[in-house]
C-alpha cells in the first residue's frame, strides 16, 4: 500500500490524477463544485472543492482553484447523508491541500492560524472595551481596580 498523501509536504497534480477517483458529486454550479474522492491506493477520502475565478482586471482571465480536505469515515458518511455541512471556507477548519499558481503541485494549508488570530482579535477588542469603560467611569477606588483585574483575568 502506498504512503498517505498527508505525509507529503507537496503533491504533484499528476499523482492526484492517478490516485484519486470520484466517489460522489455533492453539488455543482457553473463556477464551483463539491465532490468526495477516494485515494485508490490508501483508501483515504477527500472533499474536493473546485472553483473558477474570473479575473476581470486581467481581461476576464479564468483561474481554477482546487482544494482537497482529508475526511475520516464518519465525516464522509455524515456529508453524504446530509448531516454535516461542507461549504468552503466556513466548514474547512483542518489542514487541506490546495493547488499552487507557481507550479503544478498542491501544498498543505492549515487554517488554524486564521482561527487563532480571530480569537485573539476578539480578546483584544474585549480588553479595549473593558479598559475604555473603566476609564469613562473614572472610579479609581481599590475595589473597582480589583474588579477590573478580576474581569481581565476571566478573558
Describe this structure in words.
The protein has 155 residues and is α+β, with helices and mostly antiparallel strands. It is 35% helix and 33% strand. It has a seven-stranded antiparallel sheet. Strand 2 (20-28) and strand 3 form a beta hairpin. Helix 3 packs antiparallel against helix 4 (142-154). The longest helix has 26 residues, at 112-137. The protein is elongated and about 70 Å long. The chain starts with 9 loop residues before the first strand and ends with a helix.
How would you concisely characterize the structure shown here?
The protein has 155 residues and is of the alpha+beta class. The protein has four helices and seven strands; from the N terminus they run βαββββαββαα. The chain has helices spanning 13-19, 73-80, 112-137, 142-154; strands spanning 10-12, 20-28, 32-39, 45-55, 61-71, 96-99, 105-109.
Please give the structural blueprint.
Layout: E1 10-12, H1 13-19, E2 20-28, E3 32-39, E4 45-55, E5 61-71, H2 73-80, E6 96-99, E7 105-109, H3 112-137, H4 142-154
Antiparallel strand pairs: 1-7, 2-3, 3-4, 4-5, 5-6, 6-7
Helix pairs in contact: 3-4
The oligomeric state of the chains shown is single chain
- The number of strands is 7
As a percent range, the share of strand residues is: 25-35%
Q: How far apart are the termini?
A: 48 Å
SSE topology string: EHEEEEHEEHH
**Considering DSSP H and I runs of 4 or more, what fraction of the residues is helical?**
25-40%
Q: Which structural category do the helix and sheet elements fall into? A: alpha+beta
What overall form do the CA principal axes indicate? elongated
> Which whole number gives the mean pLDDT?
86
Q: What Rg, in angstroms, do the CA atoms define? A: 23 Å
Enumerate the strands of the largest sheet in spatial order, edge to edge or round the barrel: 1-7-6-5-4-3-2
Q: What about the largest sheet?
A: 7 strands, antiparallel
The number of distinct helices, counting runs of at least 4 residues, comes to: 4
Give the low-confidence spans. Answer: none
